[in-house]
Amino acid sequence: MSAIDVDFDFQKEAGLDRAGVQRDSDKYSPTLQEYHRILWSKPLPSGKMFELTKISDNRLYHRSELGEFYLSSDRAIATFSSWVKMKHVIDQIPAKELEDFIRLTDTIGGIVIWPSNKINGFQTINGARGFNRQIVDRLDLTIECIRRFYLGEASPLYETFVRYSDFFQLFDDFKGYIDFFLLQDYVTEDYTSVKIAEPFDDFRSTPIPKTVDEYLSYMNMTSELIKLRNQRTDNYVTARRI
Fold it and tell me: Which among 40, 59, 6, 64 has a CA at the least distance from the CA of 180?
């Protein structure tokens, strides 16, 4: 049996706090931390080993001639389901479809890792993704920013990525990054374009679905990409006999 269950419920494992509020699985799911350690402890495009160890505050750590890196989990898919400004749209989405979408985003296919150390007091990548109104926590748009970063092109996250350039240098180029983190289904076969869900107008406005049709289109495409990454992850661990 594989050491990675792509359907594992990290949120259920994280449980509730004393006030009965759902705790963040990025911080409180030991299984999620272990999955990240297993999946991303592997050779880099250079052939050098990127070995990760768990540290006490639910982060991952690497230190070698490559550098020193503190990394943490990020449930990377925005569902907008709790946004007050989205209530008029969310209330019109069939409850079961919305529940299934939210549940899917909490599987390993919808979760990534980023450097977790703040640099000069600025936001981490995780924080910048969430607070930047041109990204609003969307993974597809974050990946588009990463593509542009490797090309030296401007994007809403360019300055944030510059601060963590040592992390991105580990993967040599955009293809190296995508292949390492099993994100191939988010890009075209030649790696020149990112598959971006609507709405998107090249970062000119906030990419939040404004209608039921826009939300359903975003939800359906995003769900498909998560499922494909889960399948790719399952194939990967099977091939490696993890």
Answer: 40
